[in-house]
Amino acid sequence: MLRVRNPEINPHSGGASLVPSRAAVALVAWLALCGALTAAQVSPTATSVPPAGNVRIDVRPGQVLNSFDPDRALGSSIDVLSRAGIDKVYSPHIVQEALSAGWGPITYRNNTELRMAAWHWTENGAWSDPTNQSGYFTGSTDLKEPLRYILAYALPHRGFSTSGDRPVQGPNLTYWKSNPYLTSRFTRESDSLHPQWVVMDLRTPKTVNAIRIAWASPYAITYQVEYWEGKDALDFDRGPQGEWKVFPSGAVKNAPGGNVTLKLSDAPVSTQFLRVLMTESSNTCDLHGSSDIRNCVGYAIQTIEAGTLAADGSLQDVAQDAHGESQPTFTSSSIDPWHSAGDVRNDGAYQHSGFDLFFSSGLTNNLPAMIPVTMLYGTPEDAAAQIAYLEKRGYPIGQIEMGEEPDGKHAMPEDYGALYLQWATALHKVDPKLKLGGPIFEGVNEDIRVWPDALGRTSWMGRFIAYLKAHGRLADLAFVSFEHYPFEPCSIKWETLYSEPQLMKHILQVWRDDGVPKDVPLIVTESHLAAELTGPMSTMFAGLWLADNIGSFFEGGGAAFYHSPIQPEPVQSSCLGSATWSNFVADRDYNIKGYTSLYFAAHMINLEWVQHRSGVHQMFPSSTDVKDAGGNVLVTSYAVHRPDGNWAVMLVNRDETHPHAVRVIFEATPKRHSSFSGPVTLVTFGSEQYVWREDGPNSHSDPDGPPVATTVAEGSQAVFTLPQASITVLRGKVAGF
After folding, report:
1. How far apart are CA 283 and CA 170, in angstroms?
2. What percentage of the chain exceeds 90 in pLDDT?
3. How does the average pLDDT of the chain come out, rounded?
4. Model confidence at 47, in pLDDT bands (50, 70, 90)?
5. CA 409: distance to chain centroid?
6. In this model, does residue 9 exceed pLDDT 50?
7. For position 11, what pLDDT does the model report?
8. Which of 124, 277, 496, 695 is deepest in the core (most CB within 10 A)?
9. How many angstroms separate the Cα of 414 from the Cα of each of 281, 447, 450?
10. Residue at 288 is within a domain
11. Is the model's pLDDT at 7 over the cut of 70?
């Protein structure tokens, strides 16, 4: 999920754009060039061209790396918007521009779950406590007025917990309470298999030998207080290095609840992290009463304080003088999705697209869309009602993503698995054919490592797969989805580009090594250079990265790739210059002023390399020998055999300053080589067609495309020149293949 977007700080407003569609004009000019120009090769730049290298494509029988249909495998996404932004983005002009980038299907991103909020996909529905308009909301499947906006609701039982990304604020943060769906009443397993916990981060090591807990109901009657010995206890991306240790007097049984001050040890311990681990509940009802069992299971805490005991037995709070970022923060295992009508976020600055608007606007390209259901902060009944509503409307659903970034909220894999199975049961009662998946990991380059379980296992994915297998439910996992944000936003250099193919292929292999079966597709459902805005997102760097990103994804066996986002976004400042997240140069009112390198790279991928609306493409191994003195591959290559019989080779010249010449060789056997036969269509987009000009909020590209196309009359003996910092697609026939 794109974490820097903040509609409440930068609200968008304004009416429909009157900017003419430059996409159509550029495309017409491009197609005209394709038919009108012929040449032996693209003219080299003024810089001298090194001797020709070789592009080798292995077309031996049985060497197909991957098969994919672009109408299922190459798409984009729609993300959170303001109400005014929704009105603007779903105008015919913006939809036309968005689709002109060539992407096929679309995935719908759920930002509310990212930000620890409940969403109401419809305001028609019923509360579990209708008298007080509160509790657990289930949307109605009745077909009433079309849904245009989706609202977010703060979670009162989030309490002190700050798990997640910029939690949606609410007026009624009463106490923290764990998710009732993780108790034996719903999991049908012992609560000891799903211990709930709160981690207190003191921000720096502090001396501690006592803790004060103000319990609410239900409270823990069996729990233990632990301290962390080692490095960052909450760093699941790199893997926590250390272990939890129970204080000498930290194990508590038959606890009575209420306000308790515990002396944990005689000698104070220096630590940054404390954990309260709860394994048995009082099952007493919270302040909402006993009419709903969900009010009476789990654990609830008002406050936690830590420090040392004075001689008189009073607690000396280590955080009593802490302010701002030095104040302790709290991460919790889960959160109760209880909320009320009064917790709604309805100021217009933070909205999601209503499903009827989304499906009827044309933005889905008349293809099945990937749809989310809330799981971490929702109910299975509401998720089932949402899908039943969409099916009653007749909207085509490709896949359903379950939850949103559990790793970012430090959910344990067994807890996510327990919720996943409950939701899968409810959804498959609606439609047994639904394809469900997740966990929608944050963009990581390595395996996600968590605190070891009883067997010493630390891999999040490995333990999730093991949980499904242990319950005989692996078949409920129709795909595995994750996000891809590979780079740190403020440390990107040109050489960073060289690492992308390896990063992508590596993380795909990681999930397989974790136990994801080979027949379960791997899908990137959101992607960009980094999780925060950075200047290279709008330079030529981003276009080259996208080509490598997608090419290496399919080479690595990926099934579907969704680039983010499809909507325009304004130009903003970042640590490495001004940029925009999107394909377009736009102002704060979503008026499109120009195009970014991502837009033209999308054209190269979707309109030149592959062929939408045509069927399955086959990808073959491809490599080049064009390297620099340090061994970095300067030209990458990605070869597909298209349904129209053409071979298309996408070549990415990652050399920032030099063109490179290449020959293309198709190898059938060690002694049988071939090359393009007849004319070859050659299309190039690069630093000669696109330069990003830094000018603060007025930053733009000049020149601003389009790609340059030509025809090589006879490809068999051709040497193709690839301009510096460019993407080139060669397309033509190969005799005998």
Report:
1. 27
2. 86
3. 92
4. low
5. 14
6. no
7. 28
8. 277
9. 19, 17, 11
10. yes
11. no
Coarse DSSP helix, strand, coil percentages of the chain, rounded to the nearest 5 percent: 20, 35, 45
42-68 residues labelled b (16+ CB within 10 A) or e (exposed): beebeeebeeebebbbbbeeeeebbeb
Judge whether residue 46 has pLDDT over 80: no
Three-state secondary-structure class, residue 699: coil
Task: Answer whether residue 685 is part of any domain.
Answer: no
- In the block, which residue shows the tokens 């960073």? 496
| Domain housing 300 | 176-336
Contacts of 119 (CB under 8 A, 6+ apart): 110, 112, 113, 150, 151, 152, 153, 352, 374, 378
The β-bridge relationship of strands 149-154 and 344-345 is antiparallel
Contact 713, 658 (CB under 8 A): no
276: amino acid identity, one letter: V
* Mean pLDDT score, 411-433: 98
CA distance 485 to 597: 18
Are 704 and 543 within 8 A, CB to CB?
Answer: no
The tally of domains found in the chain comes to 1
Long-range pairs for 644-647: beta carbons < 8 A, 24 or more residues apart: 644/611, 644/614, 645/733, 646/731, 646/732, 646/733, 647/57, 647/676, 647/731, 647/732, 647/733, 647/734, 647/737
Sign of CA dihedral 348, 350, 356, 361: positive
Chain segment 168-181, per-residue pLDDT in tens: 888 788 899 999 99
So what's the pLDDT on residue 361? 97
| Residue 30 and residue 704 in contact, taking contact as beta carbons nearer than 8 Å | no
Token reading at 664 = 């293309």
Least confident span in 6-15, 492-501, 562-571? 6-15
Does the predicted model carry a pTM greater than 0.85? yes
Query: Encoding tokens for residue 496?
Result: 């960073």
CATH number of the domain to which 278 belongs: 2.60.120.260
In a domain, 557, yes or no: no
Assess if residue 521 is contained within a domain.
no
The two tokens of residue 308 are 């040392």
**Three-state DSSP string of 82-142:** CHHHHHHHCCHHHHHHHHCCCCCCEEECCHHHHCCEEEECCCCEEEEECCCCEEEEEECCC
